[in-house]
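Protein record
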Amino acid sequence: MSWDGLSAGLEAGADPPCLRRLDERRTVRDFDDGGDEHENGLIWSATLWDVRGALGRRIADTLVVESHFQLDGFTTFARGARSLIDADRNLFGGRHVQQLARIVRRRGIGPL
């Protein structure tokens, strides 16, 4: 997000400067109950980046958009993961379920 976070990233010493990194190693163990959605959202952002790396842009984007139809304002990481898997079952016959499950388990998201 260098187009939006250049100054914030420069202040924080990010290299390259950015607002939010998608290549974090964070897992659910890093979840901060007192943290905000932006800080804790790094876990989910990194998870989706992993999905994109594993499945490619077109499939990942398709799954993410489709999965949003199952979510509401009170969702959890586990519900988000389940919605990705459900989207894959609906759109691709479950072809990527094992990869998706492996990715979310590595991030400590579950149960699946």
User: Anything to note?
Assistant: The two ends are 30 Å apart (CA to CA). The chain has five helices and no strands. The mean pLDDT is 83.
